[in-house]
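Recap from last week: sequence in, structure out.
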Amino acid sequence: MEWNMAALAEGYIHLNPYMASRARLVEIGELSQAAAIDIAQRVYGGNVTLHVKIEEGSAKAWFGVAAGLATAIGMYPNLRTGTIALVNDAREFGGYINSTFIEKSKAKEEQVFRVERRTKTPGKIARVIKRLDELNETPAKPEKRRLELAMVRQELEAIERDLQQQEIEVLHAGLVYENLPPLRPQPNKTGVLGPTLGMPPRPEARQMGLPYDLTFDANVRSAEPAGSPVVYIKTVFVPTIGIRLSENQPLPPRKLEPPLEH
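Predicted structure tokens:
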């Protein structure tokens, strides 16, 4: 799934074999979406966007959560603490929604072909922090360090493509290391930013001709081309309720602990 904001989590379920009519899959989608809204409110406290997509055939389902990274990280003292918390939240959301979808679909254990709890942007940031920690603490030859930092910059630039400028500032403010050079271009004597390694800068939405001011109606299903395997797709805003899972009644125990993360 592609977002105009940071993807915080995604649950993915693939049932195979699984035979169900399109009408039945739509019904499962409605039931699972209602549950996903409740789970997102409990795990994140609301103020996130939920995207649900279900395909027929060997049924596949995606449940994604997105929000502004600056807002999500701003709830915590620093980038490192916030990233750890958001990775844990992503695993928690994915575990609950995957189990819920399997329950709503009434799939048997042998029909569950694949499940994943995807940590999305927080997981990518966590991997960058881990690599930078290692580079900062472990002596290395200049050439090897230069190559490894170039790879980290590429990973960061890939992350930045999903972020707004304010979020990019928050990200880099938390990635300052005593023994490492700056990870972004620095102004030279003329005030012009110097070169950096990695991908070219991302064009703005206006330059690409992409919609940048979309709003979503919770009651309207997006149209799909005739013959598309997609039978259910909705994007809804999950309102704030002011509580988190630890402060609320616990959800039912998970029936499944998905081991795969991306």
